[in-house]
Amino acid sequence: MNQHADQPIRPAATVIIVRNASPQYEIFMLRRTHQAAFAGGMYVFPGGRVDNEDHSPVYDDFHTGPDAKQSKQREALGDSWQAYWIAGIRETFEESGLMLAYDDSNSILSYDEESWVKFRDYRKLLTAGELSLADICQKENLKLAIDLIHFYNRWITPEGRPRRFDTRFFITQAPAKQAGEHDGTETVDSLWISPSKALELHARDKFGMMAVTARQLTAFSEYNTADDFIQMARDNTEFPTYHPTLPSTG
Can you tell me the distance from the alpha carbon of 147 to that of 82, in angstroms, rounded to the nearest whole number? Predict the structure, then answer.
């Protein structure tokens, strides 16, 4: 009997963040520490589990969207649609430092040297549980950019893994004037890399990834520009759920 057979399935959200580059657009990825219980040593997209606080109605006043074009996305996410979007934004900020939000001038938040230091401190406090994402929004008059983050698909970790997640994957464009970086604790490296390059390195055992990540990147590699990729995500109306299984051991 598999010792992990009774693992609970935790709801989670992951955000695939892209930027234009040549010859192919690039995706922001993080390498998890080898000590991590889940995906140790692997390159992943920013994300994590949905917390109880992500369901709080306080966020009703701190986001823009989903817009009419995203109605199918909202429907596919179900009654907890807002919590999944909030969790994806929160986990992205905790893991990468990228804040997917509008500032008080209704522009995508940008960092200068002073604000980067301030938001780096917010990131530490958020990760430590000493303030919430809503607290940051209130302090800085931010609106979380749900209208720019598009639900794409859903993957459920196979039975038998030490941790299991029911993960909603989202796609968005990177804020032009922010720089992401790993946190040095849960994640020990970060980089921008094209889907094709990541798959090439993975095939040579030089870029460790979970099977789900490699399968996502295989689909993403069909696109050359971030604009085309984002347009696909925005126009998408089908949101499949995948239930992979572990190979049989006999």
Answer: 12
pTM over 0.85: yes
Q: Where are the domains of the chain?
A: 9-242
Taking the C-alpha atoms of residue 183 and residue 132, their distance in angstroms, rounded to an integer, is 18
- Residues ≥6 apart with Cβ < 8 Å to 162: 4, 7, 37, 38
Question: pLDDT tens-digit profile of 159-185?
Answer: 877 789 999 999 999 999 998 999 888
Of 33 and 128, the one with more pLDDT: 128
d(CA 112, CA 4): 46
Question: What pLDDT score was predicted for residue 159?
Answer: 85
C-alpha span between 246 and 159 (Å, rounded): 7
| CATH fold of the domain at 9-242 | Nucleoside Triphosphate Pyrophosphohydrolase (3.90.79)
Structure tokens at 8: 């609970």
Beta strands in the chain (DSSP E): 9-19, 26-32, 43-44, 47-49, 63-64, 101-102, 143-145, 150-156, 164-173, 187-193, 241-242
State how far the Cα of 181 lies from the Cα of 161, in Å rounded to an integer.
Answer: 28
